[in-house]
Amino acid sequence: MSIAYTITANEPVNQQIYRFLRQDIVTCVIHPGSLLSEKEVSSRFNVSRQPVREAFIKLAEAGLVQILPQRGTFVRKISAQRVADGRFIREAVEIAVVRRAAMEAAPAALMALEHNLQLQKMAAQRHDVQAFLMLDDEFHLLIAQSIHCELAWETVENIKATMDRVRFLTLSKVSPPESLIEQHEEILSTLRNKDADGAEQAMRRHLQEMIFSITPIAEQNSEWFEQV
After folding, report:
1. In sequence order, which residues have a C-beta less than 8 Å from that of residue 15 and are 6 or more positions away?
2. pLDDT for 19-66, tens place per residue?
3. Which bin fits 37, alpha (ψ -120 to 50), beta or left (φ > 0)?
4. Which of 52, 121, 219, 228 is the most buried (most CB within 10 A)?
């Protein structure tokens, strides 16, 4: 069941609709292969069709939907190749970030990461998958912020939408939050020790989890994945 989102006056309507639909697609509330109706979405949010159309275009740019003329807008099935490509780009960016953070992160930044880890553990104990995913993203954002390079995380955020769907599916079946928390703790330990090589290895192991987990997830949810 989708969350009852509320449109506010704080940001453009099309951006809010994009974010809400992205959340529903990533968490598979809206299943891969589903048809998205401009009319139904505009009615759901009580807005005109124009911001909905703009949100659909942005979702298409993120690789989450496909707009077919005369046929409609469909949620893309998950592409294993796109997941692999996104992970490759993300790994290149985040390894560069974490190596620099190992040398430059200030004590206050390390404390923020520790606090985030405590919140991750609480979310895992509550079995709150969506909260855990948000905190997971925040952990990586905090590392980028520790070297004053938020743009690095923005770059990752723009290419990881397809990866996020697999992340959501793996949390309960293949990569439970507890194992991801252990990996985050290992990354933080290397940052505390100013160990750039260790930080690179820990981050690489963490991000490669996606490659190991996608095969069993694709087997369990074959109808949601593109067939090759």
Report:
1. 55
2. 999 989 988 889 999 999 999 999 999 999 999 999 999 999 988 999
3. beta
4. 52
Q: Can you list the positions of beta strands (E) in 178-224?
A: none
In the chain, the domains with their CATH numbers are 13-75 (1.10.10.10), 80-224 (1.20.120.530)
Distance from the first to the final alpha carbon of the chain: 30
The token pair at 138 is 């925040």
Q: What is the pLDDT of residues 175-209, one digit of tens each?
A: 788 999 999 999 999 999 999 999 999 999 999 87
Whether the Cβ atoms of residue 199 and residue 101 lie closer than 8 Å to each other:
yes
Residue 111: what residue type?
M
How does pLDDT run across 140-174, given as a tens digit for each residue? Answer: 999 999 999 999 999 998 888 888 888 887 776 65
